[in-house]
Amino acid sequence: MTPTRCAILVLVLATGSLSAATSQQQRRLTPDEIDRIASATGGPGTSGLPGVAMTVLYGDPKQAGLYTIRLKVAPDTVIEAHTHKDTRTATVVSGTWYFGYGKKNTPEEVRELPAGSFYTEPAGDAHFARTHADGAVVLITGYGPTDTEYLN
């Protein structure tokens, strides 16, 4: 193989590898496409409750690295006080999310967060949530690996 052909082959292989790595990081999803991704009722960083469906949108919450998950929470769901080992940020996409900090989930301690609201879940800080009749959809981003440890 001539030096020129060898250089072209190296360039093609390097560009192909770069494109493959970039395409794994780039993600554009419509709501319909998100709805077609498999959801689970358990998994790292979730409540494990049957009324909470989790969809991984980016990354892997079980591994080191950035991840984003979507929680679809059924109406009248109560998530008891728990912690996560990673710091997380969240945005309420639809419905109303009732979220609070502390070691016990009581209605008096929650704050009503309508769609468009933002909140944080600092690593190791106990928090809890609930929904009412309209349920909620929440996007959560963190840096894994994550977990969920209930206090009770």
Tally of alpha and pi helices:
2
The biggest sheet, with number of strands, parallel, antiparallel or mixed sense and barrel status, is:
9 strands, antiparallel
Q: What letter string, H or E per element, gives the SSE order?
A: HHEEEEEEEEE
Provide the helix percentage.
Answer: 10-25%
**What radius of gyration results from the CA coordinates?**
20 Å
- Our estimate of the beta-strand percent is 35-45%
Can you say what the CATH homologous superfamily of the largest domain is?
A: Jelly Rolls
Terminal residue distance: 68 Å
Mean pLDDT: 86
CATH topology of the largest domain: Jelly Rolls
For the record, the CATH class of the largest domain is Mainly Beta
Q: pLDDT under 50 segments (min length 5)?
A: 3-22
CATH architectural category of the largest domain:
Sandwich
Keywords: Signal
InterPro entries: ChrR-like_cupin_dom (IPR025979), RmlC-like_jellyroll (IPR014710), RmlC_Cupin_sf (IPR011051)
Protein name: Quercetin dioxygenase-like cupin family protein
Signal peptide: 1-20
